[in-house]
């Protein structure tokens, strides 16, 4: 059975690209913003990993991930942030919560797959 990845991004082309790159190996759930994604989680779904854009309208990536990490139900789900922000390293270092990885856009598919595999391995080893 494939693992489920929740991908949150307001850019349809990025969602299509990520789905194309990852759907062979994972069940992909795509949401357009943090509100949709958090609602999906609250409906009882539990992905193995969340990948979220940092800059989105309505409920941005930082707010979405903060709410995931302070939640008793979802805080252990590993998170990878995606962003085109030139100061992504600095933004991540100032966040009041931990993310498992972050990737600058544009990214190489191999880089993305490698980050996902690494994060899932760390998550599995810490929960076994």
From TrEMBL:
Q: Which residues form the Response regulatory domain?
A: 4-120
Query: What does the UniProt keyword field contain?
Result: Phosphoprotein
* PROSITE patterns per the UniProt record, alphabetical: RESPONSE_REGULATORY
Does the record carry Phosphoprotein as a key word?
yes
Keyword Phosphoprotein found: yes
Gene3D superfamilies in alphabetical order: 3.40.50.2300
The record's SUPFAM superfamilies line, in alphabetical order, gives: CheY-like
Which superkingdom is the protein from?
A: Bacteria
The regions listed as transmembrane in this protein's record are: none
Give the modified residues of type 4-aspartylphosphate.
53
Q: Which Pfam families match?
A: Response_reg
Per the UniProt entry, what is one GO biological process?
A: phosphorelay signal transduction system
The identity of this protein, by name, is: Response regulator receiver domain-containing protein
Q: Which organism is it from?
A: Mucilaginibacter oryzae
